[in-house]
Amino acid sequence: MSELLIAVALMLLLALLLGAILGYASVRFRVKADPLVDKIDAILPQTQCGQCSHPGCRPYAEALAAGSDDINKCPPGGEDGIRKLAELLGVEFKPFGEGAPQPKAKAVALIDEATCIGCTLCIQACPVDAILGAAKQMHTVIASECTGCELCLAPCPVDCIRMIPPGSELTNWKWRYPTIPIRNVSSGAKP
Amino acid sequence: MMPLFDFPGGIHPPENKAQSSATPIRQAPLPPQLHVALRQSMGNAARPCVAVGDRVAKGQLIATADGRLSAAVHAPTSAVVSAIAPQPFAHPSGLPELAITLDSDGEERWIERQPLHDWAQRSGAEIRDFLAQMGIVGLGGAVFPSHLKLGVSQLETLVINGAECEPYISCDDRLMRERADAICDGIAVTHHALQARQVLIGIEDNKPQAIAAMQAAAAMHGYRVVAVPTKYPSGGAKQLIHVLTGKAIPHGVRATEHGVQCFNVATVYAIGRAVLHGEPLISRIVTLTGAVDAAANVEALIGTPLASLLALARPHHDSKEVVMGGPLMGFTLPDLAAGLTKAGNCLLVKSPALFPPRPPAQPCIRCGDCASACPVSLQPMDLFWFAKAKNFDKAQQWQLFDCIECGACSYVCPSQIPLVDYYRFAKSEIWGAERDKNAANLARQRHEFRQFRLQRDKTEKAQRLADKAAQAAARQAASHSAAANLAPAADPKQAAIAAAMARAAAQREAAPLPEQHSSGLNDAKQAAIAAAMARAAARKTAADEAKAASGQPPTPPPQSSGLDDAKQAAIAAAMARAAARKNAADEAKAASGQPPSPTPQSSGLDDAKQAAIAAAMARAAARKAAADQAKANQQPDS
């Protein structure tokens, strides 16, 4: 009888001890934010353009983590981005919708400084503070900080902002994919 | 004879060095115009420090280093700066690059040269700084700033690289044959700066004359000249270190961590010229070879247009393209108008007769020849597979970045696959992805900071407005009490009114922004009400005072109204006390900087209730004051 009691007591003690350890660990090592949101956010291109109909990349990441939105809503991320999201979230690849915004080449905003009237509307629209200027002063875009979100185009009352594809430079030049050059074979060579 | 080691892989391509190594180094004629590119080293392009129209002397600094991996650029000859503009550049991309165009005046007038004669007494740091000013970079091809490689001391071994393993190139061979003493002077400076225990000069055994010349020169310094077996790519830094010392430098580790540093012979020669003669790096020796009539080595100024250099060697008529570097690692020059750079060791003219076009690539048969040729023991066929499939993560896991792009795998490939092209493509794609990632991180940071800033501005503005309203109310109350000549009985009452007004104002400001905007309209009305209330209160106090001054004994006041007054005063005092208490509590809450409290709804309700109470109290006080005044007005009449 006493053996049984000892065994029960021992198991009870063990359960209490392990429970205490687990309880402490769950408080001590609590993960505050949803790590999935961070992972999704890391894949998104951070243009903060709002084409996904969310006010920025992180809200879209949160919607994706909650499963309340589709993975094909981010044109700046391209199909590559959709593929990565599909892999991370364990869902099927989904191409961009028919009428939905389609991916296009990256470009940066350029303000025509002669036309700019210094209204500061574009400064307020820029999600990454990449436009410099003050009221009634000329504005200009810091090209290296511009994400190409195009949010500054709409508010401009004088339409002086254009999107310019970035020029090729030695610092961003890439080797081409090796291809076999196509040669012009004379028609007589045909069998 | 010291024991030598062997590195894995390697190939034995035809050397083809005799064409150019037979004749002594010639001086290239002074070109009328030079295009000195500002990107002469790894890292950022140098920043020009001269202006168009300036007259510069030979050896004068024309561009300063921009950042750590950048190197200074000097005028190769005395000239006039005619342009600072993008010019064709010796780079596989064919993209123009900013260059300083110099119209030489033919005088070759030197700037005052300031050699470091007492280098033997100088510290390593001083020599480093001096070389940084002299724009010395590695001339073996990587153009890494040399002073950065001198940042270590107490080395085990200093390796001088005279292997020159790539076919066709013979510039280092001729340099060692003709200027062995000057090279050894440069080694002495380098040795002094690095404090290495031993100096090994590795030269491939296909250059017996260079070995003999270097042995003769190095004997009195005590440096060891070692003939290493000819095998491509023994001239790679890690490969030569392995051959000479047996140390295989692991992945991701610098040779200096294993006590070895490696310099090219041309680099130490340039170091010697800089320290002993005060000459910055403004010229280099270039091999002109391939499909040419007069293959030769010429000493040419940096910035000499490549077309004019090539003309010295008289290219064959059927020559199609020109490669900078050797046949294995070089790249086809997109434009011969480019100026010579510090990296330009060889110009190889290709003709279909000499270099038959590479047959089209066949599928990989996984024969493994490339793996056995790879000097860094990679699996080139797997890397090729991953690069072709654009599976870059996998390629990186297979140590793509340990590939030195020596071209041995492409050379042996029986399917004629341009393997190195795939590796270069994969590398630049990975770098591009890295850049995009960094840009995205920067954008994320900036966006998050912007969100934070907007939120902060909003709360600060609300706080500011609340403070201002409270101050205005307090000022108003103070001015009224001053006008009322500080009646002691009236003070608490006025304080109560002021406090109520302040609370109401604070609550108005604390309300959400849009509401505030919409409520802005009836602000004026509220102010009018408050003012009317305050006026009424002032009138009443004035009346009270007049009563007190009329000599009526305050202690036993007339029974009928006196009792009433006393009661009223007591009530008012109690109310004022309560209001003051509440006010103090509110203030304490505000001072403790509590953001909207965790239960905003309940506290909001509370606030509303409090405000309602306060408003009711204020209304009541106003009514009472009006009644009092009416009574007071009636009293003199009666």
Task: Describe it.
The complex is a heterodimer of chains A (191) and B (638). Helix content of chain A is 33%, strand content 6%. Chain A is mainly α and 191 residues long. Among the domains of chain A are: 55 residues, 3-methyladenine DNA Glycosylase II, Chain A, domain 3, CATH 1.10.15.40; 57 residues, Alpha-Beta Plaits (2-Layer Sandwich). In chain A, the strands form two sheets. In chain A, strands 1-4 form a two-stranded antiparallel sheet. Chain A has a two-stranded antiparallel ribbon with strand order 2-3. The model of chain A has no long low-confidence stretch (mean pLDDT 88). In chain B, the strands form four sheets. Chain B has a six-stranded mixed β-sheet with strand order 1-14-13-17-15-16, sandwiched between helices. Chain B is of the alpha/beta class and 638 residues long. The longest helix of chain B has 65 residues. Helices cover 47% and strands 13% of the residues of chain B. The radius of gyration of chain B is 44 Å and the shape is elongated. Chain B is built from 19 helices and 17 strands.
